[in-house]
Amino acid sequence: MPLRPLTLLIALLHVYVGLRLLPALQAWTLAWPLLLAALVVSAATMPLPFIGRRSARRPLPDVWKWIGLLSMGWFSSMFVLTIVRDAGLLLGWLATLVGGWEIDGQPWRSWSAAAVPLAATVISLIGFLNARRTAGVVRVDVPIRDLPRALSGFTIAQLSDIHVGPTIKRGYIQRIVEAVNGLGADMVAITGDLVDGTVHELRDHVAPLASLRARHGTFVVTGNHEYYAGAHAWVDELRRLGMRVLMNEHVVLQTRNTTGAQTEEEELESALVVAGVTDYTAVHFDAAHASDPQGALYGAPPLVHTRLLLAHQPRSAPAAADAGFHLQLSGHTHGGQFFPWNLFVPLQQPFTAGLHKLREMWVYTSRGTGYWGPPKRFGAPSEITLLRLVQAV
């Protein structure tokens, strides 16, 4: 959305919240002016992170983006809680109307109006602490039918949706790298939305990812935000850092740890196909980048039975299942990031978070290792996922 209509919309939403809460706080000597000031600051700063993003105008310094994004997180809860309060007042009014009761609603209107900014502030503070901490490790066993013995216990450290940008910088990434390296995983998978800015802006902050350590290396696929930020340049940069970017293609990992002579058939049966596709929406940015799970398997040895797909969005899953993959690793949803947005994810994606089965294929959807936009996570903690392949019972 262009900046001017966005700014107008933000202002109108703030006016709505002010009209619904401020009159009920007239008797509160301190609360009324504090809330008015907070709403004015929020309305003025929320557009700041968007200034210069899609134009030649120079972006604002990150400190202003920080302020705008904090305001965005706080006002999001303010708006939702105001809607909830209005719904409660309406239900209360209907109940008194139907029941014929006479109840003085002024105390309830006053106290509930005070509760909205208090709850929004508490939620935002908790959400900030959750977002800024180093993501915890979530361990998941994935049961694969007819899994070769050599692949039993194979581990994948998944990172997703880190969104390096105005509020996520080098130090944040370094902590993630140290946590992943401590896991000793067989491979690292980064399933898109790594960045929210250009290579020129963020090269130094992404650089610690070159230190990721795993037996078979680090594999990356693009997310929709890579295309907003210049996907071609980012693919080149990530490859320069030593990561393998999979663009509708695959690699075959030989996992067998034996010292004796092996036939080619034995080697292939113990191997793992790791494929990756471009983002589900990439075709809108570059027709040559149209996501193609089936094409990602072109030329894969038929004797390699176990197939893993990295795909940023869960909605790639039906095509992946048709192509014969056993497991798809995705992100994109952030698990909703904070309530109530998790309730809307199913309108676009088949899975919000966690491990699910689609026909004969497993799909794991990460809640994300960073966050997008407001530094806020509430009810959807970030994660570094350690997935282990096990034999299905």
Give a short synopsis of this structure:
This protein is of the alpha/beta class. It contains 10 helices and 12 strands.
Overall geometric form: elongated
Any low-confidence stretches, pLDDT <50, length ≥5?
none
Quaternary structure state of the chains depicted: single chain
Question: Would you tell me the overall average pLDDT?
Answer: 92
- Output the radius of gyration: 24 Å
CATH homologous group name of the largest domain: Metallo-dependent phosphatases
Question: How are the SSEs placed, and which strands pair?
Answer:
Elements: H1 3-21, H2 31-45, H3 62-99, H4 106-132, E1 136-144, E2 155-159, H5 170-181, E3 187-191, H6 199-206, E4 218-221, H7 224-229, H8 231-240, E5 244-245, E6 249-254, H9 264-269, E7 271-276, E8 306-310, H10 317-323, E9 327-330, E10 354-358, E11 361-365, E12 383-391
Parallel strand pairs: 1-12, 2-3, 3-4, 4-5, 7-8, 8-9, 9-11
Antiparallel strand pairs: 2-12, 6-7, 10-11
Helix pairs in contact: 1-2, 1-3, 2-3, 3-4
Explain this structure to me?
- The protein has 393 residues and is of the alpha/beta class.
- The protein has two domains: 3-132, no CATH class; 136-391, Purple Acid Phosphatase, chain A, domain 2, CATH 3.60.21.
- It is 38% helix and 17% strand.
- The strands form two sheets. The protein has a six-stranded mixed sheet, with helices on one face. Strands 6-7-8-9-11-10 form a six-stranded mixed sheet.
- The radius of gyration is 24 Å and the shape is elongated.
